[in-house]
Amino acid sequence: MTETSASAFKGTLAQERQLKEAIARHADQPGGLMPVLQEAQDIYGYLPIEVQRMVAEGLNISLSEVYGVATFYSQFSLKPKGEHRISVCLGTACYVKGSDKILEAVEQKLGIKNGECTEDGLFSIDSCRCVGACGLAPVMMVDDDVYGKLTPQEVGPILDTYLNKKGGGKK
Amino acid sequence: MTIEELNKIRAAKHDLVVVRKLIAEQAAEMEKKTGYRKQVLVCGGTGCTSSGSKKVIDALESELKKQGLEKEILVVKTGCFGLCALGPIMIVYPEGAFYAQATPEGVVRVVNEHLKNGKICTDLLYQETVHTDGSIISLNETPFYKKQLRIALQNCGVISPEDIEEYIALDGYQALYKVLTQMKPEEVIQEMLDSGLRGRGGAGFPTGRKWAFARASESDIKYVCCNADEGDPGAFMDRSILEGDPHSVIEAMAIAGYTIGAKQGYIYVRAEYPVAVERLRIALRQAREYGFLGENIFGTNFCFDIEIRLGAGAFVCGEETALMTSIEGHRGEPHPRPPFPAVKGLFGKPTVLNNVETLSNIPKIIYRGAKWYSQYGTATSKGTKVFALGGKITNVGLVEIPMGTTLREIVEEIGGGIPGGKKFKAAQTGGPSGGCIPACHIDTPIDYESLTALGSMMGSGGMIIMDEDTCMVDIAKFYLEFTVDESCGKCTPCRIGTRRLLQFLDKIVSGNGEMEDLEKIEELANHMKSSSLCALGQSAPNPVLSTMKYFRDEYIAHIADKSCPAGVCKDLLYYEINAGLCKGCTLCARNCPVNAISGTVKHPHVIDREKCIKCGLCVRNCKFGAIEKK
Q1: Are the Cβ atoms of B309 and A137 closer than 8 angstroms?
Q2: Residue B266: its chain A contacts at CB < 8 A?
Q3: Are B327 and A92 a contacting pair at CB < 8 A?
Q4: Which residue among A38, A134, A148 places its CB closest to the CB of B234?
């Protein structure tokens, strides 16, 4: 089981070097903040205040401006995500086919709410607006795997396969 | 790149690609010239990828290799064919055999029986394409495709989006050559005006006029932007065009650049569309290599290049001023107009912003002429419109119809009707900014004006079909939750107004509504429409207003009778097991996703209402009809 604490920032030197390269690439580009934050999130998985500070210093803009942009867009997360990221589509096509019930079943199964991460850091739940697989509605994604035409009772067994993949974890 | 070189590529690739657009008998002739005995087109769009087309392609390629057929049979990964409900989709030419819901196992059979021995696996085909005598019906003759007219989607599902030469084979970049060498910018604008093309992003502003304004603005620097931030949940027209035919957008942006006098273009595309972004990157690289972007295009002094910017998940960035603010690297908040972007847009310079579908029409209009384009459509709305058909409809997918087609034709013929014998209740267009068209207006011909008159709007093209099991109050609430989430917070009418509207609806669906709430909703909605800063807030009340207009009885049922006629709103319903009918088979208890049902074998079970999430699974599972929704 992985030990991820939500509070402590554990960036490595290698990550920092990658971030600095990204900053250097975009520093002179008009409107470079968004691409830098997108790369930063790819590097760290989320955008803690420490990372935002490095971006602000690197681009020579204020931390408040970086924070303002980081909190405006739903793609950016200030909190770490789970090892397996569950994303339930709540786009209209999925919604009319009952995706709200899929989301509830996921929440029930993991004992956390939409937007939260399990204590062991294994799963996090997000809802999203349309992954573009409307033909398969209702749809849930776990990492890059797409599960379509779901019913609430299929949710539990699907998530169990990810527990088993880890070989650990409790039910 | 010269026109001679362009025409040479077109001639060289023409037969290879055009064979995919012909019917079987003619195609058999052409096949000899292409060097391949057969071609297999597999959809690599997001819809089919989600249903497993990658595994299908892998299985296909490895089986072809195993059978030693890889030199005779060409595999092409295309964009969307449109019939997403049947994905993964695979078409074999020259026969035009349309395999639906392909699986790796099925593909092995297709390779061995069809590709190797010429015996079509009829049982694996889309059954609408099979005659009772076993012969194949052309795809264009099936109900789904028959009434469609593909202009914007002309190349989607036909060419490989990752091979610029296949685009060239179907007259790609000829329009760019034409404008650069034979047309003055004013003539391009006149052509656009004559074509009657209006913005496909929602508002329907004439494209030619937009370009004329930007051309008239004096500035040494101008920009062309492409809005690919398709935010309407349940809409995927623009994504499919980018995935299936990215060069049409690039060519159109270069044409726009020449017309208004811009050297730089930006495509603002959702980061949630990884396949589209990847194909765009490949397309841009190839366009530069072939000299359609860069310096001195076609030997003229016109220079133009395009950069991709990724959106980060903010619906408001579909609004033009917000989109530009976001490209500038700020919070994507809109600002008041005027000044309009054509005067003061991106980085403070005159800017033209067009949506993906609008752009993809433009090379065809220039190449084939305004007159050809304007023959399609209605008096005020020319050409075609692409819709992403979703929800309670048999043929979920992407359809392109001439303007003026009726909703009935879309739902009953193209869409194949409502599954499960249910009744059509309403079609929602325009997403969170639009409204519902009820069954009584199903014969309305679709164009910009008719949809607005019904209290909905054309929107970008999302069309969600709802049946009798959909609660209209719940749908209005769904859209408001979306706009509450997505309101940027800059102006008060939208920030507070959407939240207050949602509170009213929450009150109604939980059984606490009062009749005077309906008047309060209308009053608040009208204030929001007149005083919000941008279209997001101005149109946010539309889903509520239009459902209240056509389905007021449902609102009244929630308020006065405390009941939800469609059986959706959970606070107004519960499930109960009829002890007289329950045999204690335990099936419901075993399958309940939240373990809300308890009881011992052969004794009546009970449902714990606290735990129950009202998913209705037990009702569907029970063989004795013992579980009742109340």
Answers
A1: no
A2: none
A3: no
A4: A134
Model's pTM, two decimal places?
0.92
Domains of chain B: 13-139 (3.40.30.10), 164-374 (3.40.50.11540), 384-467 (3.10.20.600), 472-560 (1.20.1440.230), 574-629 (3.30.70.20)
- For B447, other C-beta atoms within 10 Å of its C-beta total 23
CB-CB under 8 Å, B87 with A30:
no
User: How is chain A split into domains, by residue range?
Assistant: 13-72, 84-166
Are the beta carbons of A38 and B312 separated by less than 8 Å?
yes
Which one-letter DSSP state was computed for residue A11? Answer: -
Residues of B within 8 A of A76 (CB-CB) are 312
Residue with tokens 């960035």: B317
Q: Which of B43, B236, B612 to mutate to test the interface with A (most CBs of A within 10 A)?
A: B236
What is the Cα–Cα distance from B155 to B363, expressed in whole angstroms?
Answer: 12
Query: Bridge-partner residues for B223, per DSSP?
Result: B264, B351
Cis before residue B339, ω within 30 degrees of 0? Answer: yes
B233 vs A contacts (CB less than 8 Å)? 90-93, 95, 129-130
Cβ-nearest to A146 among B50, B85, B478: B50
Extended beta strands in chain A, E state: 84-89, 123-128, 140-142, 145-147
- Spatial CA neighbour of B9 closest among B174, B153, B241, B139: B174
B 581-600 residues with CB below 8 A of A? 591-594
Q: What are A7-65's pLDDT values in tens digits?
A: 578 899 999 999 999 999 999 999 999 999 999 999 999 999 999 999 999 999 999 99
Quickly list DSSP for B550-561: H-HHHHHHHHHS
Q: What does the block give as tokens for B236?
A: 């995927």
- What is the nearest CA distance from B137 to chain A, expressed in angstroms? 24
Sorted by sequence, the CB contacts under 8 Å of residue A30 that are 6+ apart come out as B328, B329, B347
Asked if B466 has any chain A CB less than 8 Å from its own CB, the reply is yes
pLDDT tens column, B135-155: 888 888 899 999 999 999 999
Rounded CA-CA distance A97/B468 in Å is 12
**ipTM here:** 0.88
In one-letter notation, the amino acid at residue B359 is: L
Tell whether domain A84-166 is in CATH 3.40.720.10.
no
With a cut of 70, say whether residue B628 has pLDDT above it: yes
DSSP state of B130: B
Cα separation of A66 and B159, whole Å? 42
Residue B508 CB-half CA count within 13 A = 33
- Tell whether B428 lies on the interface with A, counting CB pairs under 8 A: yes
Tell me which residue has tokens 């295009």: B297
